[in-house]
Amino acid sequence: MNKIEIMKEVSKMPLFKYLTPQEIDWMLVKWRPKEVPKETVIIREGTTGDEMYIIDAGRVEVFLTRGDVIVLLSELEESSFFGEMALLTGKTRSATVKAKTDCRLLILKKQSFLDIINENPKVAAKFLMGMCESLSNRILITNANLENYFLVNQAIVDNESFRNLYILTHKAPSSSG
User: Fold this and answer.
1) Is the domain covering 3-169 a CATH 3.90.550.10 domain?
2) DSSP, res 174
3) Which of 16, 42, 97, 139 has a Cα-to-Cα distance from 72 of 20 to 30 A?
4) pLDDT tens, residue by residue, 41-54
5) Strand partners for 107
6) E strands along the chain, which residues?
7) Whole-model pTM?
8) Angle, nearest 10°, between helix axes 3-11 and 21-28?
9) C-beta neighbour count of 169 within 10 angstroms
10) Contact present, 55 and 114 (Cβ < 8 Å)
């Protein structure tokens, strides 16, 4: 994919929605493309990192591992981003991200992000506005999911018929066959 094709695709991404084509072009110099094969772990929960990613092509899954249980948090598609906490907080990765398909990613290292802030604060502010808007939308979705989980849990606790149905459907198979 050449620079013009990448520009057209990136300009459609919510992360860049407040930037002019010239500002996007200037910013793209700071990003590095990377091809990632299907099933590759891109980020591992609990590790440190200093980059964020945009999915230029492909899909990834975001999950937590708790013992033998994998908790799928989301699937992200083209134009989505992940790993932003490494740029913003420097804390360890909060989840694992694995390529669900072959992916083409754009990577922004923390130092390049700091360079953007120092070299052009106006562009950085517009970029951060797009990021904040996307993160706010993710919070709204998470809130709705938490409300649903709460309501299901409440129904299990409060309603004996629902609780018995839940227990029945989650019962381990008997050893007698």
Assistant:
1) no
2) P
3) 16
4) 999 999 999 999 99
5) 32, 53
6) 32-36, 41-43, 51-57, 60-66, 69-76, 81-82, 96-99, 103-109
7) 0.78
8) 120
9) 7
10) no
What the block records as the tokens of 109 is 């290292």
The residue type found at 166 is Y
What are the backbone angles phi and psi of residue 42, rounded to the nearest 5°? -90, -40
For residue 70, what are the β-bridge partners? 65
Burial call 59-79: b when 16+ CB within 10 Å, e when fewer: bbbbbeeeeeeeeebbebeeb
Cβ neighbours of 97 (radius 10 Å): 23
Q: What is the pLDDT of residues 2-32, one digit of tens each?
A: 555 555 567 778 899 999 999 999 999 999 9
Question: What's the N-to-C CA distance of the chain in angstroms?
Answer: 57
Alpha helix stretches (DSSP H) within 1-120: 3-11, 21-28, 84-88, 110-119
